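Holo prediction. Input below; ligand is 6-O-phosphono-beta-D-glucopyranose.
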Amino acid sequence: MATASKNPVPARVTFLDGRGEMPMVEITTAWSTAEIYLHGAHVTNFKKHDEAPILFLSQCSRFEANQPIRGGIPVIFPWFGAREGMTMHGFARIKAWEIKEIIPAPDGSVSMRFRLPNYPEAGAYPPFLAEYVVTVNEALTLELIVTNNSTEESLEFEECLHTYFAVEDVGAITVAGLKGHSYLDKVANFAKKTEMDQAIRIASEVDRIYLDASGTVEIHDAKLKRVIRVAKENSTSTVVWNPWIAKAQQMPDFGNEEYQKMVCVESGNVNVNKLTLAPGKTSTMKVTLNSHH
Ligand code: BG6
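Structure of the complex:
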């Protein structure tokens, strides 16, 4: 990675009123700009100075308390998917997080550490600490750090960085890195299947949980002539999702045509890959997003 000293632009952290007057932080480094809402500790934008944004954000997204932002990187925790009588995909994405620390590094990177306050919804779990560190430089690095603060009970949870990537035309992309893995096909009532394709194409609704899949995934965007790399540590599930036409029309916070401009490649530990943390233990899931032409 090039160091910032070769570039005159100093790193800058700016606190702003974002959309819906929600507090937002803009981080600009020598290489890139990122925008993060305290609501959900939600990264809504990551853009290298000489490239198109790598994250998709819906033009119809809500920016409201207790509602998820549609696009960017929703932090899904402590459960993934639907739960009877509970909010979809956990409460972390719809709650305000606190900034705990801003760490400028000598190489020009900036890290921001968030902490999920102790909301009543967490009361159903043993006491835990959930922190999220976002590091901005040439790449975007995300670390979700969960500690079980109980001295007696295990902490069982799911987590997922539900990343929406921007693509020029979803029909012209391929997703690589999942061949040979089993997946649960949500479009086929969670049928268990095996991925046969090295280059997955999307031509209808896709909603798959790949299991025991910890390798790097790449999105090859033929029209933008760009490859996005999703590299991860301590994440054994990868979810690939595109709502396609009918589901797009049902979602109030998503444009009817926007399915053409995005694909979710989500890094997590969900379903049978859920985590169980012994008392006092910490788990860190780390995801690094980068792109090249
Ligand atoms: C994906 C799920 O991760 O998230 C899909 O696999 C779901 O089933 C999608 O539709 C979006 O969920 P939500 O709650 O943000 O609309």
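The CA atoms of residues 118 and 129 lie 8 Å apart. That is the main takeaway for now.
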